[in-house]
Amino acid sequence: MPIRLHVMKNHEEASRHVAEMFQQTIREAPASVLGLATGGTPERVYELLCQFHREDGLSFSDLTTFNLDEYLGLPAGHDQSYRSYMTERLFGHVDVNPDRVHLPRVDDFPPDEAARQYEALLQQTGHVDLQLLGIGTNGHIGFNEPGSARDSVTRVVDLTEETIRSNSRYFEDESDVPRRAVTMGIATILKAKRVVLLATGGSKSRAVAEAFGGPITDANPASFLQEHGDAVFVLDEAAADGLAGILHGVP
Ligand code: GLP
Predict the structure, then answer these.
(1) N or C: which terminus of the chain has fewer CB atoms within 10 Å of its end residue's CB?
(2) pTM exceeds cut of 0.90
(3) Is the model's pLDDT at 251 over the cut of 60?
């Protein structure tokens, strides 16, 4: 099934659309397994989910969560670790059960072992019900950089120069950005029952257009989502900018 599209006016509306998808999933099935992403893009989604918890009583207590990835080489508790990110933006503000919140345990185990355990735990849990994704300017999902195989699972990866440069905006200095990470693989991500990719801003428009309508290739790892049966891209107008030519040919 082709990837479905929702083009919203701006970042706020796109974020609200995604937050409402998560809210609906949680209300319909409070014991869902959620796949979560980091980066700048989903920050507003998490703010809205915190608001739904605070004001509308949305409960996270029966959920299980798995994050896509984690940096390697940061000191435990570093404010740019994805564990800190999630605590600060979501887990620290809602009634989630800490025992059911998962990120690769890179502070407790050697990297390869942390990756192996994470994949095993995911398989043991069954499938992710709703997976949130962002996209890198080079088409990466999680930290599956160009060249990542369709059958890749959770593993240790090297980050590309483009990703390091792009993520340096969150660090004091580019030299502080980790060079490696543990990430769910492409095959791991594609096992999720439903996938929603949120992308906003013109810097993502090329990667989005290639992923949506280009060839399915490891040169743009997000293009593998074309093989998923239930994937949706939620975009703002700027991120959707490159799609015009492609959509022209779509009925
Ligand atoms: C990061 C994360 C991805 C994220 C992407 C885009 O490196 N590992 O999960 O989707 O890059 O980040 P941002 O939303 O900050 O542009």
Answers:
(1) C
(2) yes
(3) no
